[in-house]
C-alpha cells in the first residue's frame, strides 16, 4: 500500500515536533506523497453573549495557530512544498481530527504523544482518542 496522503496533527508539544519529523521522512519516501498539517483551536462551549466577549481571545488563538502551522511546515524541510496547513476549530480537538480523517480518506495519520499515562491518558489524550476513533492507520510519535 502506497502512502500518498498523510495527516499530521500538531500542537505545541515535543511529541508534535517528533510527529512532524516522522511525517516528513515518510512523505520524502514517495515523490507523489502529500501531507496536510492540522492544528485545532480548542473553543470552549459558550453562550452567544460569552462568545461575543471571547472574540478577541479567539482571534489571538487563531493567529497563534496559524504561526504554529507555519513553523510546523517550515520544519518539514525538503517536503514542505508538498504540505498544506489546515486550521480547524472545535470543542474537541480529537473529534475534529477524526471528522477530518473520515472526510479526506488519509492513508496515514501521524500524531505526537504528550507522554500522559494512566487515567490522565485515557481521559485527556487527543492522540489516544484519535488512535481509537480513526478509520485510517495512526502512528503515534513519542
Written description of the protein model:
It contains 5 helices and 5 strands. It has helices at residues 14-28, 48-74, 93-104, 118-124, 126-133; strands spanning 5-9, 34-42, 83-90, 108-112, 138-141. Residues 116-123 have low confidence and may be disordered.
Write the layout of secondary structure elements.
Elements (H helix, E strand, L loop, with lengths): L4 E5 L4 H15 L5 E9 L5 H27 L8 E8 L2 H12 L3 E5 L5 H7 L1 H8 L4 E4 L1
Parallel strand pairs: 1-2, 1-4, 2-3, 4-5
Helix pairs in contact: 3-5
Give the termini separation: 24 Å
Report the β-strand fraction as a percent range.
Answer: 15-25%
Instruction: Give me the strand/helix succession.
Output: EHEHEHEHHE
Quote the average pLDDT: 90
The radius of gyration computed from the alpha-carbon positions, rounded to a whole number of angstroms, is 15 Å
Fraction in helix: 40-55%
Global structural class:
alpha/beta
What is the 3D form?
globular
Report on the biggest sheet.
Answer: 5 strands, parallel
Biggest sheet, spatial arrangement of strands: 3-2-1-4-5
Strand segment count: 5
